[in-house]
Amino acid sequence: MNSLQPFHLAFPVKDLSETKEFYTQVLGCTLGRSSDHWIDFNLFGHQVVAHLKPEEVGKVKTSDVDEKQVPVRHFGIVLDWDKWHEFSKDLKEKSVKFLIEPYIRFKGEVGEQATMFFLDPSGNALEFKSFKDPQMLFKS
Q: What percent of the chain has pLDDT over 70?
């Protein structure tokens, strides 16, 4: 059986303190190493690193997908179906402001999936999604 290897992603932020609070308190990440200029987070087993670079934080550009404005640059996790529903409920209870509210795409069809988009405090777009049938992740 194949096991996924953790990915590594680095991204710019405008303030490390608010970033640390958001990723730990809202998303539930645990902390890794850090310095005065960056923080490692464990995001569902993956290493994401916030680098203090306020000049690199920019406006979110979107593209029209299913009549919704989806941020072109975004990252996130594909969760299992039940975990996605629990996570979206938790985010709503924490009053996360969604760019795209949690919803089900292709309901009852091949490729049925759940998705939601929101921004971190620096404007980095995150998408968390799930497939009703995980085998559909890479199916065309």
A: 98
Question: What is the CATH classification number for the domain harbouring 38?
Answer: 3.10.180.10
Q: Rg (Cα) of the chain, in Å, rounded?
A: 15
Tally helices (H) and strands (E) across the chain. 2, 10
Same domain, 4 and 65: no
Average pLDDT over residues 12-20: 98
Whether the CA torsion 25, 28, 32, 36 is positive or negative: it is negative
Number of domains in the chain: 2
Say what the pTM is. Answer: 0.92
Shared domain for 86 and 46, answered yes or no, is no
Are the C-beta atoms of residues 115 and 129 closer than 8 Å to each other? yes
Same domain assignment for residues 40 and 70: no
DSSP state of 129: E
pLDDT tens per residue across span 49-58: 999 999 999 8
What distance lies between CA 94 and its chain's CA centroid? Answer: 15
Does the pLDDT at position 96 exceed 70? yes
